[in-house]
Amino acid sequence: MNLARAESASCVYNGDVIVTGGWVDQNGTDLIEILKMNQHPLRWTMFDGKLPPKLSAHDVTVYQDKLYIIAGDNWNENKPSDAIYELSLAPLMLSSFSQECLSQEETTEHKLLTGSYLSWEDRQPARVKMPLIDSVVVYDFIKNQINLPEPALGMSTVTWGNMIIVVGGVDKNYQALNDVIMYHIETGRSESLPSLKNKMHGASAVILHDVIVVLGGRNDEE
Q1: Which domain holds residue 128?
Q2: Domain tally for the chain?
Q3: CB–CB of 19/1 below 8 Å?
């Protein structure tokens, strides 16, 4: 990767690997990298967008061309997050700009700024009367945000149909949790499921035949 990261979160989208956030040199980061698997040699590239806040110990998943960023340690506010952010990974529109230059003394300037994530500028003296055309792909990086019942980090997540299930983690006081929360992507609602037998954080989770299997993790009480 371009950055050495710890406590980052990753997922696969259209066959490419996406790595988000984490902490770098003792500081949180909001940077996103993508590994294009169809490139040879393989090469990590920086994504145009950034996470809404700097996050570590969060989780991410993809559903219908959208990246869902789940809870984690919010370095902007220096506290655990209870937010689920919804970021579009697919282009929303293609904006075209044209300007006709009328004399050698004129200068054309085009700017596009979407949030703080994407900018393009073209400035040049006009030599002849000719149209200048350029295009910019625009992404909607912060489309929606909902909140979990309480802040969490170090949790595990699985996707089941159109639902994201958040398992365990630690709360705002860094105490281990045994909570299981199901977030409905289509409605934005969340609900509590039966709790884990043991409190844990830093575990892995998979879903197999409609059964959530939680592996490993840490239980500070044992």
Answers
A1: 110-221
A2: 2
A3: yes
Estimate to the nearest angstrom the gap between the alpha carbon of 46 and the chain centroid.
13
Q: Is residue 105 part of a domain?
A: no
- Along the 222 residues of the chain, how does pLDDT read in single tens digits? 888 899 999 999 888 999 999 999 889 999 999 998 888 888 899 988 888 899 999 999 988 888 899 999 999 999 889 888 888 877 544 444 333 433 344 433 333 333 333 333 333 444 444 444 444 444 455 555 677 888 888 888 888 888 899 998 888 888 888 899 998 888 888 889 998 888 888 888 888 888 888 888 887 666
pTM: 0.70
Q: Is 37 found in the same domain as 74? A: yes
Both 77 and 147 in a single domain? no
Q: Which of 158, 155, 154, 153 is nearest to 206 (CA)?
A: 158
Both 203 and 124 in a single domain? yes
Fill in the DSSP letter of residue 104.
T
Query: Which of 109, 3, 81 lies closest to 46 in space, CA to CA?
Result: 3
Q: Is residue 153 part of a domain?
A: yes
* Residue for token pair 């230059």: 101
Task: Report whether the peptide linkage leading into residue 91 is cis, meaning its omega lies within 30 degrees of zero.
Answer: no
Write the Ramachandran bin of 52: left for phi over 0, alpha for psi from -120 to 50, otherwise beta. alpha
Considering the domain architecture, whether residues 213 and 157 belong to the same structural domain is answered as yes
Distance (Å, whole) CA 218 – CA 176:
9
- Cα separation of the two ends of the chain: 36
